[in-house]
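So, could you explain the following?
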Amino acid sequence: MATLANRVYDSGLTVLDTEANRVDICSSEPTTYTAATSTNTLGNETSISISAPTDGDTSGRKVTLSAITSGTVTGTGTATHYAITDTGNSRLLVTGSLSSSQSVTSGNTFSLTAVDIEIPDPA
């Protein structure tokens, strides 16, 4: 069975801890930075906190995006996904489905529970 040292996982996950600075809620899963921050976004939060890498829940390693309590809604629609980006370098770093879709209205706020981003050990 193949193995990877924690350092290998941590190098990839540390990018999230050190470079990610925005999370958007989106109407569909974005595939580019522009889609995440312009085309599909329904709102965003720029005061985000992502933990340093730790052991994963079942294997591998993970980081955790802290809960969002006061994100700004900038569009009206149904949010189905989230996107984490590095705005300084215009990079889309992570996307994922929300645990449940949210109907949002421009001018309101949104909240998200904490999100784990995990890289599992090889099978």
Summary: The two ends are 7 Å apart (CA to CA). Strands lie at 22-26, 41-45, 54-55, 61-65, 68-73, 77-86, 91-104, 109-112, 115-119. DSSP finds two helices and nine strands in the chain.
